[in-house]
């Protein structure tokens, strides 16, 4: 669990990576409603909120009407959040309210919760869930009285920043709390939809008082770090292609740092040696760190082929992630990429067989993945190659093909491979063709001299 944002005396952050990109900070003392489908990540998000607060010295109280303490603790541990040491230091308290069964007892519990806030001087409070409070109150007017007079105003007067969790039936838009949705300072809605057998998760910021909502809806993923936001960086942070810090050469083509290249390889050609030798092996030989993600070749095949020209010791030079894309949503794929770049800090990322990924995802979701991927990698000064098995005459049918800095086609012409530039960054005309022989891929000297390498 990483603590991803700092807080000031007047502001606090939702503990999600890149939250500031979509809604900035929120004011201390705000009451935020988190509504969502079952399994959408509400409790995980609320746990992150409490854990980040307690870990930074802000006493946090978690009130649950739905989950026993031991279950909560065990589930939090799955995301590397161990509340027990914080509990021992008086920075966290779990208030279990499972035994409440009637409206009178509910009123007593709410009063006791506010007393707990006072006794530990809680700065952050989670109520899980207000849906349970509403059901226990039985009478809608009584539920609103408890929600507004006791919880909302009670927490407001104490200056606590609170997350109120609300259950949202699948397909329903509103939380069902009625006027309370207008009273709270912010509303976050967590939802998902099933696409090709996978849950595509996303969050929506309905309102957030005192902040500038830059993006109202964005993909999320639930990873070992908890709930993660996966949005691309602001395009203003992308590096200059006119005056790059360094450039690279590939078959005589100058490529600026942070560029993204689409390579359409004719389906009759196996791109393995293009991926591993012309790109990865050459780059590693020149001292660059390379990531290869292949959707058509196994990790051992990639490593063995790369080692032909650079030797067996690839530790710290080559990373070949192993995961099953058919079981991952677009948000999870992006979250994995962001974490990989953050941890490994590559110079080059090569995705081989992206056409397979396109088949596994909904086309709109795939387009969002690519749009999230390319600016992020460019901002981190990573040269990116996306290799598709795709006919060259239809290359611009690939999602966001016109968004790439370079577009290259590879196709057999007799006994040769034609490598043709269809789009060249910064040039009015696309460029010409280079022809490769099969023997070129057996010469490590040719690979190191003509493959991907830095030139400045």
Q: In short, what is this structure?
A:
It contains 14 helices and 22 strands.
Question: What would you note in describing this structure?
Answer:
The N terminus is likely disordered. The chain folds into two domains: 219 residues, Rossmann fold (3-Layer(aba) Sandwich); 219 residues, P-loop containing nucleotide triphosphate hydrolases (Rossmann fold, 3-Layer(aba) Sandwich). It is an alpha/beta fold and 456 residues long. Helix 9 crosses helix 14 and helix 11 packs parallel to helix 13. The protein starts with 10 loop residues before the first strand and ends with a strand. It has a nine-stranded mixed sheet with strand order 5-4-6-7-3-8-9-10-11, with helices on both faces. Strands 16-15-17-18-14-19-20-21 form an eight-stranded mixed sheet. The protein has a three-stranded antiparallel sheet with strand order 13-12-22. The chain contains 14 helices and 22 strands. The chain is elongated. A hairpin with a 2-residue loop joins strand 12 and strand 13.
Helix content range of the residues, please?
25-40%
In round numbers, the mean pLDDT is 87
Q: CA-to-CA gap between the ends?
A: 38 Å
Strand content: 25-35%
Strand order of the largest sheet: 5-4-6-7-3-8-9-10-11
Structural class: alpha/beta
Low-pLDDT stretches are 1-7
| Rg on CA atoms, Å | 26 Å
Largest sheet: 9 strands, mixed
Tally of discrete structural domains: 2
Number of helices: 14
The named CATH superfamily of the largest domain: P-loop containing nucleotide triphosphate hydrolases
Task: Give me the CATH fold name of the largest domain.
Answer: Rossmann fold
- The CATH class of the largest domain turns out to be Alpha Beta
- Count the strands? 22
CATH architectural type of the largest domain? 3-Layer(aba) Sandwich
Query: What's the shape?
Result: elongated
Protein name: ATPase, RecA superfamily
InterPro entries: KaiC-like_dom (IPR014774), KaiC_dom (IPR010624), P-loop_NTPase (IPR027417)
Organism: Acidilobus saccharovorans (strain DSM 16705 / JCM 18335 / VKM B-2471 / 345-15)
Pfam families: ATPase
